[in-house]
Amino acid sequence: MTARLTSAQPYVLGLFRIVVGLLFAVHGAASLFGVLGGAMGTNGGTIPSGTWPGWYAAVIQLVAGGLVLLGLGTRGAALIASGSMAYAYFDVHQQAALWPLQNGGELPVLFCWSFFLLVFTGSGAFGLDRLLTRRTPATRQPAADQAPMSA
Hints:
Blueprint: H1 2-33, H2 54-70, H3 74-93, H4 100-103, H5 106-121, H6 128-132, H7 143-146
């Protein structure tokens, strides 16, 4: 069973990346363009252009979420997205209470750690990174170096 699960790992990781990237990009689109109910707390509106930190966070959400969704520059985009969610949690949510359940910060925490995981795992399967990078025999690693790590 372990061998089957391990062989499916890149595909499940790719699907995870797609879902997380899509959800993050949708948050940015809602805040910037007023789609899907608009920005939170605006009754279907948008965040005024250039306001700190909301508008900049929405731009990061849309751009980084789109890049992660496509699997293009996944590690870099995920690092920026993870950092923005850490900032959102500590600057906005933690002021209300200590625990995410008490301060409404569950979503930023989940996004933060999901993107942080993608920084280390990469895009998995289905990413544009794999299509755009040509692998030549000189850049290929031996099969032993490509094996996923297991506990």
